[in-house]
Structures are given as structure tokens and as C-alpha cells.
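User:
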Amino acid sequence: MAAPTLDLRDPTFGLRLMVHEARAQQGPSRELRDLRDAWLLHDPVDPEPFWNRLIGPRWPADHAAFDRRLDEAITLFATIDRIPHVRPLPIGGGPADLTSRLIAAGFARVGADQRMALADPSTCLEIARRHAERPSTHVSVERHPAQSSSLDRRWAVDASLTLAEAFDVDPIRRAALEADVLACVARPGCSILLLRDDGDGVSLARRATVAGGSYLSSIGTRPGWRGRGYATLVTALAVAEALEAGSEFVHLAVEIDNEVARRFYERLGFAVVGDPVPDLLLR
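Assistant: Predicted structure:
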């Protein structure tokens, strides 16, 4: 159940992570299209830029050829009635100054994250093993969809509350969070791990295992329960289950300014892959 050795400096691995994240986020109507020198994730229903993005351009360095390819990409977004949104690769994209060229062309950086991949699974596997051998009397872990039923979806209410408080989401978006976790467990390969303390939902992790890998997201703990190792436990369990499912790689993303989270994942065996990945939107 150990993850194979990965070359975190391999440009093809950087592309694989970015495309895999998009595959993990595909829904019934969300499309992922191979454009040969980039990938397009497109949601025909939801105009949210996050669901409509050009992933990992590998365009020519020649300025005239680059400008032609950029014009074609902008036209493509116009045909699908979406804001042009580009996410470069953490390693191996092109040209080397892609971000600065896009900014010069009118794109704005609206965020950035760091890609991380599991390099050493030993810590997570040991935490998961200890939890299985010495379960807590007051801490339990629910796995959905395994424990879900069409008749009892109260767990989704608790999961949405956990996410709302962990990530300081506006209460009016609670219903959207509930719908989101239910949509996750309805997709093949997507699961939610909800950790409870004396019955209260307190920590959560989402795992999407598709196409030979696992993407982890929505890892968080409600403020009143932080500092008790719950995020560590739920992350370790998600990793262990990803490897048990046969994942060749496990990865996640961390906001570029969240050094606490980056160090947390490094202690659990994750390593940074390449450079920060900016979100670039045409303004």
C-alpha cells in the first residue's frame, strides 16, 4: 500500500497533476477537453471561472506564434461565453515567461496555490494504523458514500456545517455546501470523510480517486476543535484509503500564502511540486 517513487521535477508529472485535478472535479455536465497544447475544463451550466479554465498551456516562445495562440484561446472562451481563465503548470509549461506575458495582455492574477504530492506515505500510514488498532472512545470517522443512504442525509448537514466553520464561509452559502458534498458522493470515486467528536462533526476531508490517482481537498477543522490532531487524523485516513484504492499518486493544493498548511502537509509526507500556480483572469 505504499506510493511508488515519484519524480517531482518531471514536467510530465506537473501536467498530470493539473489535469488529474480537473478530472476529479468533473461532474455530469462538466467537460474536459484536450486541446493538444493545453486542456480546457468547461461547465456549460455554471459560469464560475473556477469551473471554466484553460489548464497548462504549452505555447511557443516566439512572440508572433504566442500571440496567435493566445488570440485563439480568447476566441474559444468567447464562443463558450466564459471569462478567459488560465492556470499555468507548476513545472514544464511554456513559454517560461507565460505569466508575465498574460499579465501584459490584460490578465490579472487573482490568486495562486502551491501543488503538493505525497512523497513519503509512512507517516500517514502509521497514523492510520494506530487509529485502527487503538480507536478513540469519543472520536469516530464516517465514510460517505459507504455510510450514506437515500433516507438519511443528516450527515450532509453536519458536513456542510463543518466546512462552513472550517473555512469561514458565509452562512447563506450553507445550502450550496450541502448540495456540493451530496454531489461529491454521487460521483464515482469521490468520497467524504467526516470525523466526529462525541457525535459532533468537527473535521472533514474530501477524496476523489479517478484515473489512477487521488486528489484531496476541503481538509479542515472547525475552530472550536482545532489543536487536537483531528486534521492530521482525517488527512492520514484519506491518504491511507487513497493508497488502498490503488492510487499511483496522491496530491492536493495549498494557497500560496498559507505557510502553516504547507508545513502541516510536509510533516505528513507531502512535498512541493514546482512553482506556485497563479489564477489568471482576463479583465
